């Protein structure tokens, strides 16, 4: 991880920030994030980690930052990138004989959403739908991945089987029939404009802040991609109690109506995300150089999850 002192030099040389500047580690996962205080003005600095499976190249990074700038101009409450002295949203920094990339974002006021009241839940649903609708008009010279059937089902099962073989754990052949049923349902989803398009990709409560004064602010679009719009709704389905989720869904549909097959498929899609989550965690452990012991725990938990999903009724 890059040291805070080195990042302070980068901030002073790269951005037009008021002094004094303070920089403190905030959190790490697929990227490292630092809170920045520039004479009372607050920002978040992201230091991109290399070798992530969902970020293939610099173009993927630029796509996300362009998308955030676009959403900000359209009135969607997102943490948008701050341009550097050279008018760049993405900036390269030499570190340990390699280039690391950094981006500075405006601070998301408020606190992480947890238990939200039903009125705010409906508003949040409105915002997610508005984000999806505005995203349909976004154009970029850069590319981004598709969260298609392979991404959602095939890749997670393949990586699980790879680790199971290396770690000599029980096989998952029992899940084959269930996986095929999931795949059939996903294949029924429309790929028309509206139902399929740009999504946040990881819309869990840790990536949304709320305050009574400033409202909602969505951030960390590191997993944004082209995919089915119910992806974001399925993430929310997994994160909130049923009553809150239903209100969020109602708020969403007051802005963008779901087709019958979309709404029916959200529960199955939520199960698919539990499958995909394993690959994301294993990818993160690889990026961070974690031990085989940590990976084994993840794989064992994943096998248990597959058993639970396999025993559920399918509708």
TrEMBL record:
InterPro entries: Aminoglycoside_PTrfase, Kinase-like_dom_sf, Pseudomonas-type_ThrB. Signal peptide: none annotated. Keywords: Transferase. GO terms for molecular function: amino acid kinase activity. Residues 31-251 form the Aminoglycoside phosphotransferase domain. Belongs to the pseudomonas-type ThrB family. This is Aminoglycoside phosphotransferase. The lineage of its organism: Bacteria, Bacillati, Bacillota, Bacilli, Bacillales.
């Amino acid at each position: 991880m890059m040291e805070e002192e080195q990042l302070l030099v980068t901030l002073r040389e790269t951005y037009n920030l008021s002094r004094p500047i303070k920089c403190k580690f905030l959190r790490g996962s697929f990227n490292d994030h630092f809170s920045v205080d520039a004479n009372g003005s607050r920002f978040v600095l992201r230091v991109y980690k290399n070798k992530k499976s969902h970020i293939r190249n610099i173009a993927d990074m630029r796509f996300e930052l362009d998308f955030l700038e676009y959403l900000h101009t359209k009135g969607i409450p997102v943490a948008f990138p701050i341009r550097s002295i050279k008018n760049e949203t993405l900036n390269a920094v030499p570190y340990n004989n390699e280039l690391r990339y950094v981006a500075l974002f405006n601070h998301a006021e408020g606190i992480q959403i947890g238990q939200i009241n039903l009125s705010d839940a409906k508003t949040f649903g409105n915002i997610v739908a508005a984000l999806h609708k505005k995203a349909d008009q976004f154009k970029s010279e850069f590319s981004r991945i598709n969260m298609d059937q392979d991404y959602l089902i095939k890749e997670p099962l393949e990586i699980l089987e790879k680790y199971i073989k290396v770690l000599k754990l029980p096989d998952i052949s029992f899940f084959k029939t269930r996986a095929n049923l999931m795949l059939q349902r996903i294949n029924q989803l429309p790929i028309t404009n509206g139902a399929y398009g740009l999504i946040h990709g990881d819309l869990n409560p840790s990536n949304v802040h709320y305050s009574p004064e400033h409202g909602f602010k969505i951030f960390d679009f590191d997993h944004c991609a082209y995919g089915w719009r119910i992806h974001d709704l399925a993430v929310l389905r997994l994160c909130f109690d049923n009553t809150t989720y239903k209100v969020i869904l109602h708020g969403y549909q007051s802005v963008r109506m779901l087709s019958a097959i979309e709404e029916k498929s959200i529960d199955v899609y939520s199960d698919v995300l539990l499958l995909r989550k394993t690959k994301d965690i294993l990818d993160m452990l690889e990026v961070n150089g974690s031990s085989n012991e940590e990976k084994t725990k993840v794989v064992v938990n994943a096998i248990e999850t597959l058993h639970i999903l396999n025993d559920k009724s399918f509708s």
